[in-house]
Amino acid sequence: MVKLVPVKYRGLKIFLSVFVVFTLFSCGNDANTNKDHLVFRYNEHKNIGSLDPAFAKDNADIWATNQLFNGLVQMDKNLNVQPCISKSWTISEDARSYAFTLRNDVKFHPHELFGKDSTRYVIAKDFEYSFNRLLDKKVASPGRWTLNKVDSFKALNDSVFQIKLKQPFPAFLGLLTMKYCSVVPKEIVDFYGNDFRSHPIGTGPFKFKRWEENLKLVFRRNDRYFEKDKTGQALPYLEAVAITFLPDKQSEFLQFAQGNIDFVSGLDASYKDDILTASGTLRDRYSKDVNMIRGPYLNTEYLAFYMDSELTEIQSQILRQAVNYGFDKKKMMTYLRNGIGIPAYGGFIPKGLPGYDASIGFTFQPEKAKQLVQRFKTETGISNPEITITTISNYLSFCEYIQRELQKIGINVNIDVIPAATLKDAKANGKLDLFRASWVADYPDAENYLSLYSSKNFAPNGPNYTHFRSEQFDTWYEEAFSVTDTKAREALYTKMDSLVMSKTPVVPLFYDEVVRFTRKNVSGLGINPINLLDLKRVKKSNPE
Fold first, then answer.
1. Which of 36, 72, 299, 479 is the most exposed place for a label (fewest CB within 10 A)?
2. Whole-prediction pTM
3. C-alpha 342: how far from chain center
């Protein structure tokens, strides 16, 4: 029996959604109800655009393709690069040439096009094809940029794949863990063409079974999967994965509360106060049936000043410092996020990423902030300093909180709410003096965050939206590419981050956290700072 947990939601829309999901979970032979504990169920409210890894550009697509495909290497929960289809690799002394030795026991999922055995082993030529496909302008993969640092690549033989870089890039192995770099079989892609998006054949722990777009997606266990657990047992443990597509988070959470899905990711405003206390702990009515997992997420939420602004307030480092000192970030997280998220007292590099230092940022010091504001008034003759924060509606509550707090220290704050697309264009073209933004890591290396402050990356041609410039920073940034010692590079990253914070082009608000809610009978799901969903080690016990 499934224990029902009362949740106060209204409306016919949710009732209908519940009926649809119940029907999907109860009918058909894709998920045998007698083996329900071997089926992992979750909802994807944003839908899935493609099951082709070359187009895995957002979480919905990445989570699905991660079950179906593998690359040369993979990331563990601590952001360490581990072997995958490549069992080992060597790097040349100049850090520009990589030679990957492949496993000899990796097979593609079965398909009749492979011939009488319905499958074949992966060889180095498959990676050569997959990388060429990623670079093919006709394919138009959004992941083409992952190979920007690559000069050439080729299969030296069936077992060795070589990649040469244009220049040393210490974060390169991290780039290769992205789903864009997965191996795909040429004969299958050639046969399906663009329809490979809905007929995926990979090497992953699960294989594609059925997709009713916007309704349900089913994967089944790959009995020939090459990875095993520490005891030698074959992975994955589950028999199937079933994904539904309820379009809103309220309906998704209701299904989770009633035990119809096993997992919910993130904390949405529609249910955050129902499941969590203000301090971020599970409410009593959920604690018996639900586990909460939380940990650092490589996402920094921040306010950004446009350093080329003509406004005196924005040009003033004194006033920018006052803004950084002028509001209580911990209080903000308690009241607006139920304690989920880490107040950003460090720099721009988020907690959980090597290079992070909690001591280089700004703490809440209202008296010091008031003194700085008074100093600004005296030095400039501006008696009523005024700034405008531009944001999107989802973050209005944060900006209103900052508005109230900064007014207490003598800064008048206006808030301009505009559509996300408009904000994206305006910040790229230097039309906003102060705006809210976030930066989620494309790859797990602090260089990804620090690239926002290189003068070579001025927007709109790069991600330096603040137009921050510093010769010292640029020197260190270029130096970091040639530092192959991990600890030395991390120390350099921290120095660079500290320099940025001392010049205050940004106001870090908080470092996000990955939050996952699972039923008590789910184990092995884990958590990681890139919020990747990895189901190959997940188990479900029978909740009889």
1. 479
2. 0.84
3. 16
Residue 333: which CATH number? 3.10.105.10
The residue behind tokens 């890894």 is 53
CA nearest neighbour of 75 among 531, 543, 384: 531
Q: Can you say how many angstroms the Cα of residue 310 is from the centroid of all Cα atoms in its chain? A: 35
- CA 352 to CA 189: how far, in whole Å? 38
Closest by CA position to 163, among listed 172, 173, 153: 153
Tell which of 142, 174, 204 closes a domain. 204
pLDDT tens readout for residues 13-62? 444 444 444 444 444 444 445 577 899 999 998 889 999 999 998 899 99
Residue 65 belongs to some domain of the structure: yes
What's the pLDDT tens digit per position in 235-276?
Answer: 999 999 999 999 888 999 999 999 999 999 988 888 989 999
Cα(388)–Cα(375) distance, integer angstroms: 20
**Which residue, 327, 279, 280, is CA-closest to 303?**
327
What lies within 8 Å, CB to CB, of 442 at 6+ separation is 178, 448
Q: Is 447 exposed, middle or buried (0-12, 13-18, 19+ CB in 10 A)?
A: buried
Q: Which amino acid is at 184?
A: V
CA atoms within 13 A on the CB side of 438: 16
Domain boundaries, position 126: 49-204
Residue at token pair 């040469």: 164
